[in-house]
Specification:
Elements: H1 2-30, H2 33-41, H3 48-58, H4 74-77, H5 80-85, H6 102-137, H7 142-156, H8 159-173, H9 189-219, H10 222-229, H11 234-245, H12 247-255, H13 258-263, H14 266-272, H15 277-286, H16 290-318
Length: 325
């Protein structure tokens, strides 16, 4: 197990470097340091001297990848890519282009993101699995058919419809919760309840339909026929055998949501005015703040790799026959 984890961590290093290189290249394909300076300085104060001063203060006055004017290793190290990327592997994200400390902003915004993401993850997973089990229990019946139709209909509706419709119905018409905003402490509950419900509802159709397919596939296995032959009821077969043996694909699907627990949902946070990491990323993209965009992409990649590791480890708990070597 230990050797496997060390190997996977070593594999993760080139992946993170590759993601960083691609992000860097894509960003500077459509932007230049001069464009970033103009965006930050504003139209009225833009002069060639001001642009050069802004670039020098933030380290954007160097070449992107290769510095022919430097000597020795400086050709690679005295570049924007090297100076802006190496520190991230020590979790030193530096400052945003507007001067604010990125690590501090992340620590402040992680709470609002988790306040939405954790309930969405837990409630969404429970609701989808419970709905899928209900359809499988009554498989090949009118209830199963109606449930599948409902899932397809929910999948076909844009997520924006759930957001706008939820804000209009719950906040505008019923006046149950605020339409947007956020507050600290227990007061935050009234601000996050609508985003959580909207997110769970928006993802319920696709998740439930996927879990239903997994459970139906498990029903064709030999161990299910053996369990029935022993006289077990359908309820015991479903919960004691089918659900347990379907844990591996369920865990695989759940790992995809791990980065979003910390990174936040871009649309949800933007529409509901939640000051989380998702809205922080959108604001950085709009402001062409490369430092923040790079940091958020790096964190997301690292979290996804960690999620894959945790999933592999959880496989051994769900199925003891699996051994990580």
């Amino acid at each position: 197990m230990l050797a496997y984890l060390i190997r996977r961590l070593l594999y993760a290093l080139p992946i993170l470097i590759g993601v960083n290189v691609i992000t860097f290249a894509l960003f500077f394909v459509v932007n230049t340091p001069d464009d970033m300076a103009r965006m930050q300085l504003g139209v009225k104060r833009v002069t060639p001297e001001a642009i050069e001063r802004w670039k020098a203060e933030r380290g954007y006055d160097k070449p992107l990848f290769w510095n022919d004017a430097a000597a020795g290793t400086g050709k690679a190290t005295e570049t924007i890519f090297f100076t802006k990327s190496v520190k991230m592997f020590a979790l030193d994200f530096g400052s945003a282009d507007d001067g604010r400390d990125i690590a501090r902003e992340i620590s402040l915004r992680m709470g609002p993101s988790l306040a939405v993401a954790l309930p969405v993850f837990a409630l969404g997973l429970f609701a989808a699995i419970a709905f899928a089990l209900l359809l499988v229990y009554f498989r090949a019946s009118y209830l199963d058919f109606a449930g599948v139709v409902l899932c397809v209909a929910m999948m076909s509706i844009s997520g924006l419809f759930y957001i706008i419709g939820g804000q209009w119905l719950v906040s505008k018409v019923w006046h149950l919760v605020p339409i947007s905003g956020y507050a600290e402490g227990l007061t935050a509950a009234k601000f996050v309840v609508l985003p959580v419900l909207v997110s769970v509802l928006a993802g319920l159709g696709s998740s439930a339909r996927w879990y239903r397919t997994i459970f139906l596939e498990e029903y064709t296995r030999d161990y299910v026929r053996t369990a029935r032959a022993k006289g077990l009821s359908e309820r015991l077969v479903l919960f004691r055998h089918v659900l347990r043996n379907a844990l591996i694909p369920i865990l695989t699907g759940a790992v995809v949501a791990i980065p979003t627990l910390f990174m936040g949902s871009l649309l949800i946070e933007a529409f509901f005015g939640i000051p989380g990491l998702g809205s922080y990323t959108i604001d950085a993209i709009n402001a062409q703040d490369f430092a923040v965009v790079r940091a958020m992409v790096f964190i997301g990649s690292a979290l996804y790799i960690v999620g894959l590791l945790l999933t592999d480890i959880s496989y051994t708990l769900a199925d003891p026959r699996i051994r990580l070597q």
